[in-house]
From TrEMBL:
GO-annotated biological processes: nucleotide metabolic process; purine nucleoside triphosphate catabolic process
UniProt protein name: dITP/XTP pyrophosphatase
Tagged with keyword Methyltransferase: no
Gene: rdgB
Presence of keyword Lipid biosynthesis: no
Residues bound to substrate: 9-14, 71, 155-158, 178, 183-184
Transmembrane segments: none
Cofactor dependency: Mg(2+)
Quaternary structure and interacting proteins, as annotated: Homodimer.
Amino acid sequence: MSNQLVIASNNKGKIAELTELLSPLGMTPVSQGDLGVGETEEPAVTFVENAILKARHAARETGLPALADDSGLAVDALGGRPGVRSARFAGAAATDQDNVNALLDAMAGVPEEQRGAQFHCVLVYLRHADDPTPIVCHGRWPGSILRSPRGDGGFGYDPVFLVPEHGCSAAELSRSEKSSISHRGRALKILMEQLKAEV
């Protein structure tokens, strides 16, 4: 197995989290942007389909093993939205703050007991672009939506995602605390177990 792999993302927050989580395996992650590879379209309706598309694109363009992450927030009161459209909830060119504001607007008036939500992360690892048996791992992180942002760490919806076991937002957790319990951390633990079995 090659030590270097391409992370099929240009999202700095995702890349930082994945790099930290992969370090115990001795892998050297590099973002696709650092290799001159642009983002691919995400036309699919599931996290799994989008992650596979992104991983194949990155592996094909670089010739390296690829790790893709497709993740998002599913809010119970919104029928699972924003879901696969989490990064574009407020529009195609939306910033994290735009998306948070759109979510808070959509949740205005929703009572506390109906503010449940889950972050989902699907990680796909391809050994090469035409890998017929990709490793697919899913992580889920249950919580609820706060009424206003708290904390300045993390990225995306972290400031409005309440972590019940800690009584704070995901943006108020340290990076190591978040990595140990987040959807991405959970999916990566499963992936690491599978990769260790291949070495």
